[in-house]
Automatic annotation (TrEMBL):
Keywords recorded for this protein, A-Z: DNA-binding, Transcription, Transcription regulation
Domain HTH cro/C1-type residue range list: 19-73
InterPro entries, per database record: Cro/C1-type_HTH, Cupin_2, Lambda_DNA-bd_dom_sf, RmlC-like_jellyroll, RmlC_Cupin_sf, TransReg_Diox_bact_type
Name of the molecule in the record: Putative transcriptional regulator
Organism field: Shimwellia blattae (strain ATCC 29907 / DSM 4481 / JCM 1650 / NBRC 105725 / CDC 9005-74)
């Protein structure tokens, strides 16, 4: 997770507290959560102590292991009736090398969840994602520039004004190979089989 100093600290503190709360409510030991998420126990300890800055991929693994959504962990998940999220409360969960960003705008509670993201990628930036759980689907709409979308050795160009639907249950990436900024919105739908 990256962003401005105070934003990162605020989000990391909320993440630390919420992961610990979810883990304890589910009566999961650090060892069990570590095993389920495929993350070292030491890393989980550091996250819960607010000493680590977990990546989006790591938050996805932890949330899936506890059957909650990333939105639950960063506290932008839906609430009964209407849940308004102020601009200052929208977390930035990725920062590119040149200042690009990924913000989780809103999401539903897990394990079956929907998330809404806004991405900005500066020239040369790339985000690589491990496979999400089976059945995860991403819907993207490019508002500016041309997004490169890659999955299983395939490379697709998604131009300004165009949309794409991608199964995200395999490793994939988003890249900006142009000389201009790329801006896109993304909805993620994740359904867990019962």
């Amino acid at each position: 997770m990256t962003g401005t100093g105070s934003d990162v600290e605020r989000v990391n503190q909320a993440v630390a507290e919420r992961i610990k709360t979810f883990r304890k409510n589910q009566k999961l030991s650090l060892d069990e959560l570590s095993r389920r998420a495929g993350i070292s126990k030491g890393m989980l300890v550091d996250i819960e102590r607010c000493l680590a800055n977990p990546s989006i991929a790591m938050l996805c693994k932890i949330s899936a292991a506890m059957s909650v959504s990333v939105a639950d962990i960063v506290d932008v998940a839906e609430q009964p009736s209407v849940h308004l999220i102020a601009p200052r409360d929208i977390p930035q969960l990725w920062e590119g090398e040149s200042g690009g960003s990924a913000r989780l705008l809103a999401g539903t509670s897990g394990p079956d969840m929907v998330e809404l993201w806004r991405w900005e990628m500066h020239p040369g930036e790339r985000y690589t994602s491990p496979a999400h759980p089976e059945g995860t689907c991403e819907l993207l709409h490019v508002e500016q520039g041309t997004l490169i979308l890659g999955r299983e050795g395939q490379r697709h160009e998604v131009g300004c004004g165009s949309s794409a639907i991608m199964r995200a249950d395999a490793p994939h990436y988003y890249a900006n190979e142009s000389g201009e900024k790329v801006v896109f919105t993304m909805a993620v739908s994740e359904r867990h089989s019962r």
